[in-house]
Amino acid sequence: MKMPLFTSQITTVSFSLLLLSTTVFSRLHPSKHKLEHNSLVLGLSHARVLSVPDPLYSSKPMETLDMIEPLRGYKDGYLISLNLGTPPQVIQVYMDTGSDLTWVPCGNISFECMDCDDYRNHKLVSTFSPSYSFSSIRDICTSSLCTDVHSSDNPYDPCTMAGCSIATLLNGKCLRPCPSFAYTYGAGGLVIGSLTRDTLRVHTQLSTATTREVSNFGFGCVGSTYREPIGIAGFGKGALSLPSQLGFLQKGFSHCFLGFKYVNNPNASSPLVIGSLAISSKEQFLFTPMLRSPISYPNYYYLGLEGISIANETTIINGSSNLRAFDSAGNGGMLIDSGTTYTHLPEPFYLLLLSKLDSMITYPRSNEFEQRTGFNLCYEIPCSNLPCSDNLPSIALHFLNNVKLSLPKENCFYAMSAPKGSKVVKCFLFQIMDDGEYGPAGVFGSFQQQNMEVVYDLENERIGFQLMDCAAYAANYGLHQK
């Protein structure tokens, strides 16, 4: 999930396996919390266990046809429509490269979201009803996804929690439902639900009007949440993620986020391409290698940030060493995350960047907007006629492999309101990474990824960038009406 302003705090959930019937899985999500370094693992660590068969998975390889899905800008993120069930029910959820679990709100009347007043009157918050789908089934405790959602390295844990006998544990024939799970988000966000399987329909490359069916797709059917009113489609590298379940982890995907001005425009969609089409014919792209963090958070996408340059200066403000490499505990690197709104940098580097920018900008500061928004640099720009032009400097990110990504100016400075009194206030939309000791040292957020195609080339373990008119790109796929 996204938040308009960054609050880097995580809720650490303490629990006892014997006292709770739900397992808590703590998700890394820097847009809303401090990054937790203690993984929650049930059962015996590194236990020698027998494999438990997953009766819902076929041994036949899944056919992986390329997909094209429209994304819709909404508030501070991008929504993908999930076509679930038989007959189909369409649920819009946030597309999130910073998590694995896909979940949807469940129950027309029973779904409860605490502290979600901002969403009360939004028609977007639709719910999924398993009872209306004859292909919907509750997942069982022997399922590999059940083990994964309970964050266990011991496949017997979920069935033990479900009350299976030792005999059925050993032969893998316990058919009891997968126990309910709890999934924590930043700033105290929490979802509680059950793991469900149903048919998912996705759009093919041939036409956005043509769909194919994916049976037994696993997702969370969530009945109650705290500060999480809209579901999420996880695009991480874990077994629960949408690309993993659809068989695309050996290929990749790409997205081209439309600018913020298109948010809430029903006629505008950003293209999400999944499969071979997303990673082919990209010779002109700027590619930087993915960093691997096998110790702490292996299911997320990391980049190595070397530094930042301002305007046309050749001097690069060097980033801290933990932005381009991991330490011995697996912490560091720069996470690229569509579920984090703004880019975040560790404190020394961030403050140095602010100081350099402020020394170059001659416009008067707006203390009022800095206090109101929480952004550290806001400026009053003269504006007599629209559009308002300015002399604010450009920003370029320097990644490993000599990749220089020059960000569009509107990705860095944004007008916080309509012009008033012949002036407009624009703020610098980078933020500080609170407590970067654990987890990623920084985050490359979705706002700074606007109007560029971002390619997740999982086959070659690299991420590519190309500045793009995403509206024109979407129109090529019939997703954008000008």
TrEMBL record:
It comes from the Eukaryota. Residues 78-466 form the Peptidase A1 domain. One of its GO terms (biological process) is proteolysis. GO terms for molecular function: aspartic-type endopeptidase activity. CDD domains: pepsin_A_like_plant. The keyword RNA-binding does not apply. Keywords: Aspartyl protease, Glycoprotein, Hydrolase, Protease. SUPFAM superfamilies: Acid proteases. This is Peptidase A1 domain-containing protein. It comes from Canna indica (Indian-shot). The lineage of its organism: Eukaryota, Viridiplantae, Streptophyta, Embryophyta, Tracheophyta.
